Amino acid sequence: MSLTAVDVTVGYRREKPVLDGARVTVAPGEVVGLVGPSGCGKSTLARVLALLLAPWSGRVELDGECATRVRHRAPRRLRTAVGVTFQSPRRSVDPRFTVADTVAEPLRSGGAPERDVEARVVELITRVDLARDLLSRRAHEISDGQLQRACLARALAWQPRYLVCDEMTSMLDASTAAALVRVVNDEVAERGMGVLAVSHDRELLDVWADRLVDMVP
Ligand SMILES: Nc1ncnc2c1ncn2[C@@H]1O[C@H](COP(=O)(O)OP(=O)(O)OP(=O)(O)O)[C@@H](O)[C@H]1O
Question: What's the whole-model pTM score?
Answer without folding.
Answer: 0.96
